[in-house]
């Protein structure tokens, strides 16, 4: 060790003097890199204080600075350590589910250096033989190495050669850690792997590992990346790793749990875990529609290229990265690669879409044909805002129809009220298109336009004029109707509702409106989103059929 026994005891005594007195008959061990025989002058000094009872001691360490060294003191009772080893043994049957921190804590104790209470230290270390722990650690590392190699093979198939090479290197580390763990070198921290390999006494393994780790395949060269993967696979096989071949046909594309698909018009929306909405551009949507669960990755790529007319690799990789699909190994379950002592594996989320306006009656706005855009709204608010957008346009059409009838009958007060209703409904649609939900009250809408982009200022000005305009003559009525229609056109052009059916003009337009609304209602019902009015549920769910039929 880099610190003498006397130096360790002095550090321990000074550290304990700064803490509350521990229970009687406690033990202390030195853990970590120094105890392993590694370490350097900057390494922490890690003490574990063990009590003989069954107390529930805190996990958080005490951090001290003693004689120029950073010292950590953790505490555990004998009962807690026994539970720790029992849990590890239970999890060991499924290495992919084994908790990394638990494995690390057990390893540090088993390979610790006793300083006080040697009998208690021997007692807790006897709870798991080191040979058994070596097997558990080796299996854990082998599982992760296997997953990394499968992940690299998938990336290579998707055309992401440089990413594949990076995962080859990650697999190398974990393959060699598995081999070393089987020989008793179980310390988890990868940075000490060169010293572990020196200590293992196999220079041939060490040298070949370094050769492959330092190899630099030409960037963007799939053939060089494939050659590197082949070499890494051969090395891993020689060290006893099983369950991986260079055959991409062993990879299949599968459904991901909690992911549903919803189409409105031509736009594909993919909802993840009922919380997040991804809107797909035209090419991304074509690739998505081509997917068949259970099909091999090469066959999936062929079908997707035919459907989208473009290389689908990057899009499929993004679907995989975002957790919208999963890849599986035939007979080996889901491919889930991870790195040691790093962020846990799992789907990532891209930055939210910045498209404005965000929504249209035909679906969410997207940034381009290859877009897989994450909506900056929770899924239920996304659905509620879009249903409000569709319903506001129904109300606009109804108000224009009412205004036309009132003008014919010279019902000037009715005309004024219905014109204002049309303006407010149009503004509700504009706010909804920008993702505002819940909506401000109608009388506040024109005053809350500061919530919307500055480009909507002309709409605010014209809305204010229309809301203040009196209608008390045929001339003013006709002018108001013309200006209102121009205002509605402006708002709909801005809000992506320019193709909204003139739903009160004919039965066909009404049917088209209901079909459009029904698409959004299905999403809203799935997410239990708020409806604009309760009657909309019955109307849209029934496609406009009359609930009360004559006998």
UniProtKB/TrEMBL annotation:
Pfam families: NTP_transf_2 (PF01909). Residues 14-74 form the Polymerase nucleotidyl transferase domain. Gene3D superfamilies: Beta Polymerase, domain 2 (3.30.460.10). InterPro entries: NT_sf (IPR043519), Polymerase_NTP_transf_dom (IPR002934). This is Polymerase nucleotidyl transferase domain-containing protein. Transmembrane segments: none annotated.
């Amino acid at each position: 060790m880099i610190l003498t026994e006397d130096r360790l005891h002095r550090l321990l005594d000074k550290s304990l003097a700064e803490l509350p007195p521990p229970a009687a008959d406690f033990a202390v061990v030195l853990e970590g890199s120094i105890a392993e025989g590694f370490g350097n002058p900057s390494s922490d000094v890690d003490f574990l204080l063990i009590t003989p009872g069954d107390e529930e001691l805190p996990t958080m360490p005490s951090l001290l600075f003693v004689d120029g060294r950073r010292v950590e003191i953790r505490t555990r009772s004998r009962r807690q350590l026994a539970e720790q080893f029992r849990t590890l043994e239970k999890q060991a049957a499924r290495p992919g589910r084994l908790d990394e921190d638990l494995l690390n804590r057990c390893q540090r104790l088993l390979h610790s250096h006793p300083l006080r209470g040697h009998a208690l230290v021997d007692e807790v270390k006897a709870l798991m033989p080191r040979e058994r722990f070596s097997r558990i650690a080796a299996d854990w590392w082998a599982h992760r190495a296997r997953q990394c190699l499968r992940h690299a093979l998938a990336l290579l198939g998707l055309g992401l050669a440089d990413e594949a090479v990076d995962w080859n290197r990650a697999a190398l580390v974990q393959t060699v850690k598995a081999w070393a763990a089987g020989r008793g070198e179980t310390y988890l921290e990868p940075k000490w792997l060169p010293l572990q390999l020196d200590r293992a006494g196999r220079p041939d393994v060490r040298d070949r590992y370094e050769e492959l780790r330092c190899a630099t395949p030409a960037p963007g060269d799939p053939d060089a990346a494939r050659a590197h993967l082949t070499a890494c696979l051969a090395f891993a096989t020689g060290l006893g790793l099983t369950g991986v071949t260079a055959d991409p046909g062993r990879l299949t594309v599968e459904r991901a749990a909690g992911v549903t698909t919803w189409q409105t018009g031509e736009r594909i929306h993919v909802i993840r875990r009922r919380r997040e909405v991804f809107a797909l551009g035209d090419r991304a949507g074509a690739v998505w529609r081509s997917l068949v669960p259970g099909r091999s990755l090469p066959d999936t790529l062929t079908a997707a290229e035919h459907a989208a007319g473009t290389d689908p690799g990057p899009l499929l990789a993004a679907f995989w990265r975002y957790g919208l699909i999963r890849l599986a190994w035939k007979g080996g379950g889901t491919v889930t690669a991870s790195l040691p002592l790093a962020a846990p594996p799992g789907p990532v989320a891209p930055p939210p879409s910045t498209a404005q306006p965000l929504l249209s009656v035909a679906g969410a706005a997207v940034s381009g044909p290859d877009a897989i855009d994450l909506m900056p709204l929770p899924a239920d608010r996304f659905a509620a805002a879009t249903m409000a957008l569709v319903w506001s346009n129904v109300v606009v059409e109804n108000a224009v129809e009412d205004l036309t009838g009132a003008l014919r009958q010279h019902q000037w007060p009715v005309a004024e009220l219905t014109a204002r209703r049309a303006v407010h409904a149009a503004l509700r649609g504009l706010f909804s298109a920008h993702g505002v939900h819940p909506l401000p009250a109608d009388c506040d809408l024109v005053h809350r336009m500061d919530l919307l982009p500055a480009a909507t200022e002309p709409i605010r000005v014209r809305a204010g004029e229309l809301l203040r305009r009196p209608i008390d003559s045929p001339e003013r009525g006709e002018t108001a109707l013309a200006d209102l229609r121009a205002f509605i056109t402006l708002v709909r052009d801005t809000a992506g509702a320019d193709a909204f059916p003139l739903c009160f003009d004919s039965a066909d337009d009404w049917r088209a409106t209901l079909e459009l609304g029904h698409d959004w209602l299905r999403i809203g019902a799935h997410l239990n989103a708020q409806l604009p009015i309760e009657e909309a549920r019955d109307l849209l769910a029934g496609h406009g059929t009359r609930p009360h039929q004559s006998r």
